[in-house]
Amino acid sequence: MVNDVNAPTTMTPWAFYPKNADVKMLNGPRFDQDANRVFKMSADKFESIKNDPNALGIVVSRFINRHFTHQLKRILTMQRYYIGVNDIKFWQSGKATNRADNRIANEMPKYITNMRVGYTFGNPIRFQYNDDSSQTDTNRDEVNTAIDEFNQRTNEAYHEKVMKKNLSVTGRAYELEYVKRDTTDLYVMALDPSETFVVYDTDPEQHSLFAVHYYYVEDDETPVWYVEVYTDDHTIRYEPNGYPNSQLTFDDSNPDNYEEHYFGGVPVTEYVNNDERLGDWEGEMDNFDAYDKAISEMANSEEDFSNATLVITGEFDFGTDSSGKPKTHPDVDGSNRYMWLKPARAQGMNSDNVIQPSVQYLTKNLPIDAWNAYVKTLNDNMHKFTNSPNVADENFASNASGVAMSYKLWGSDQERATQQELYARGLMRRLRLLGNYWYTLGKIRDSNLIENVTPVFTPNLPKNDTEIVDNVQKLSKTGEFSQQTLWEMAQAVTGIKPDEEQSRMNAQAESEPTMTMPGDYPDTFNKPSNETERQVEPHTAEFDESQPTGVQSVGEEQQVTLAQAIVKQRQAQQGGAS
Predict the structure, then answer these.
(1) pLDDT, tens digit, for every residue of 30-64?
(2) pLDDT band at 4 (very low <50, low <70, confident <90, very high)
(3) Which residues pair with 172 in a beta bridge?
(4) Using CA atoms, how far apart are residues 277 and 173, in angstroms rounded to an integer?
(5) Of 173, 212, 270, 443, which sits most exposed with the smallest number of CB within 10 A?
């Protein structure tokens, strides 16, 4: 295969890193038009080569070449901005060798990304099973148990944070569902967006045809590229080679190179940050660069000021040497606090001019006010256009009301709502793949039961526990809300899931001893018999001595008074138990 002329000559991922003094900042587009293009091919063509690893390898090689040549540079650029390796580090500044040339990079990309990750996934996702009248408790329990075991085994909460970080930085994220070797345990792993892509069909719904994971490994011997391809029923591993865009070769003698899986679909899921697959701060990279230049140039000016050139006007008073003869060179010593100068006489055309002596540094005035205003404008724009709250702003007070805080986060909430819907799509695809495998193992009775699961997101915001408890109490007093709903609301304070709360309440009720007080009545006291349905007046009441009531024969008035006291006592006991 002929390599693309646009590809770098050194076939390593860091070949796309700029060299020192190689970048002309704020000088035209950063990436070409194919840098974020979705890869597609005809489904019919794919079906004709799907089961032939050699024929499929030819197509995969072409897509790898396109990804490596046109898309890898953008992804690596976004990733290095996240870690603070901005273009300012490689700026072609044109500074003289004796001038200050500081390169200061801001970390606003990391600030924005980390805040988005914490805001969206600081509270774990709840996978809520929505009961259907046609479903049984067994169906719900099977699905919930399978999901809970999977989430605990794979540290799902942290995995979501890694996925969101990749989404925020590069605009796309990939995860691989796989079965641990020699077990039936399912796992999920985030794949590096710089090493992964998915090829879709040409249908408007974009069904996954296959996914490619190609990655560079530099060991003690020859550095090589590994390529793995995932279809809807097999995992195909090609022979390692020295170049990512060279022709792939398949070794059919190794059965592990063509391995069947049972997910019922391509086990690699692509998540997108938005329809354009852009990062959260990709549109503000020019502002980042302008901010870096402003801060760096200010540092240069300060350093140049400290190393300013000394300008001397007039003549040195050389004085005389030890023998009394005039010196031919001035005694200039940096450690001396004094310098002796005398007026100089400059001969002109018609007369001589006397120049008075002076000493000063050659500097330029720093427009501090204008510089501060410029930097503040850039800083404000970076927050405003990325919908990121500036917690250092004096108006962003910690004691602001919930309504005021919500208003400041209004822009972030709009983006979060859209990104949350897109993320939920990826989560449902993950659950469907897992459901297909669980059904194959017999862990659940029907793979379609997964459709009853809904991911529930809870934004991680500063909260007022007292306000939440007050709201729960107010809703409880109305009698219009179920105990399950109230427990779900209180979970933000207690951290206990409703099902766990129910189990604790049941265990508490079973462990509490039943106390019988002197004069206590049986449950049938003052109730009509189910057999005779006859009522007995108090003054003609006949007590069956075979029923131990614990009450001696007393008068009518005493009996009524005693009954009222027992009722109050029971109400007090029940109120204390609840």
Answers:
(1) 999 899 999 999 999 999 999 999 999 999 999 99
(2) very low
(3) 272
(4) 10
(5) 443
Instruction: Report how far residue 386's alpha carbon sits from residue 401's, in angstroms, rounded to the nearest whole number.
Output: 23
Place of tokens 């990512």: 244
Q: What is the DSSP-derived secondary structure letter of residue 540?
A: G
234 close to 258: Cβ distance less than 8 angstroms: yes
Task: Please give the Cα distance from 419 to 281 (Å, whole number).
Answer: 14
Say if residues 458 and 476 touch (Cβ distance below 8 Å).
no
Q: What is the pLDDT of residues 214-235, one digit of tens each?
A: 999 987 777 889 999 999 999 9
Q: Cα 557–558–564 angle (5° rounding)?
A: 95
Half-sphere exposure of residue 242, counting CA atoms within 13 Å on the CB side? 4
Mapped onto helix, strand or coil, the DSSP state of residue 372 is helix
How many beta carbons lie within 10 A of that of residue 106, not counting itself? 21
Whole-number CA gyration radius for the chain: 39
DSSP classification of residue 70: I
Name 406's Cβ contacts closer than 8 Å, sequence gap at least 6. Answer: 413
Q: Which residues contact 76 (CB under 8 A, 6 or more apart)?
A: 13, 14, 16, 17, 194
pLDDT tens, residue by residue, 307-351? 777 787 877 666 677 777 777 666 666 566 666 677 777 766 566
Long-range contacts of 522-525 (CB under 8 A, 24+ apart): 522/547, 522/549, 525/549, 525/563
Q: Beta strand pairing status for 208-217 and 126-129?
A: unpaired
The encoded tokens of residue 170 equal 């590069």
193, exposed or middle or buried, with CB in 10 Å at 0-12, 13-18, 19+? buried
Q: At what angle do helices 410-441 and 156-170 cross, to 10 degrees?
A: 130
Per-residue pLDDT averaged across 548-564, rounded?
Answer: 53
Mean pLDDT (the chain, rounded):
83
Burial status of residue 485 (CB atoms within 10 A of its CB: 0-12, 13-18, 19 or more): middle
- Asked if 511 and 504 touch (Cβ cutoff 8 Å), the reply is no
Residues 6+ apart with CB under 8 A from 333: none
Percent of the chain at pLDDT above 90? 49
Length in residues, the chain = 578
- What span, in angstroms and rounded, lies between the C-alpha atoms of 515 and 259? 66
Nearest-angstrom CA–CA distance, 197 and 228: 11
Q: What is the mean pLDDT of residues 546-574?
A: 55
State the sign of the Cα–Cα–Cα–Cα dihedral 63, 66, 67, 69: positive
pLDDT at 374: 94
Does the predicted TM-score (pTM) go above 0.85? no
Cβ neighbours, 10 Å, residue 123: 18
Q: What type of residue sits at position 96?
A: A
Q: Which two tokens stand for residue 69?
A: 């040549």
Tokens 């502002």 label which residue? Answer: 287
Structural tokens at position 575: 């109120």
